[in-house]
User: What shape does this take?
Amino acid sequence: MLDISKVYKTFNVGTVNEKRVLKNLNLHLNKGDFVTVIGGNGAGKSTMLNMVAGVYPVDSGSITIDGIDVTKLPEHKRAQYIGRVFQDPMTGTAATMQIEENLALAARRGKPRGLKTGISKAERESYRELLKTLDLGLEDRLTSKVGLLSGGQRQALTLLMATMNNPKLLLLDEHTAALDPKTALKVLTLSAKIVEENNLTTLMITHNMNDAIKYGNRLIMMSNGRIVFDVSGEEKQKLTKADLLEKFKISAGEELASDRVLLSE
Assistant: This one.
């Protein structure tokens, strides 16, 4: 479902701020894989997701989604294949629009637009049923402006919008980092439920070792623009935090005391 092959990316080429972020990055995801991604700050995790989403062009290499070479496609043309939830809860929704209007925009992503009535009665009822699955009471607030919602409510709504058309690939970029622990757990639980029910191929970046171990069927660790550890199945299920820290030390060849390595429990 996703193939990243020999991808390189350097920012600020030829300046004193030149930084090579991705170095011969290779990653293959099968359909239905739920992969958690962990690593220190500057490891290249978010850059990898941005490259897949088309935010940045690759310097060299290729990116394929479900057999379609998207390497040279701009971000807006990749949107038909990708659902994404960002770290900032304010990013994935339009604050001045109603909840039902945000859902209508998401439902029409990648589809031709016409001059029909904005939201039909049947659509409104389907949105109400979808919102019930969040268990946040939003099904009774369809006409409320999204800007009035809490961060957790907006992130849950963004998650629903990102997955309602069953994208080929779901990208979760530390999507609970800005939430309080209780709300973060609710959003993570909801994420895992949606991914499992729809068999979505998913990449989830996290700084939290417990979450990286608990969720998904596969875990990869990045360091200095490369994947240094890749574990799945039964081996992943047996992982502990101590194992993960030791793997990082061995694979990356760095002491974890370094302030460049920030992995939270």
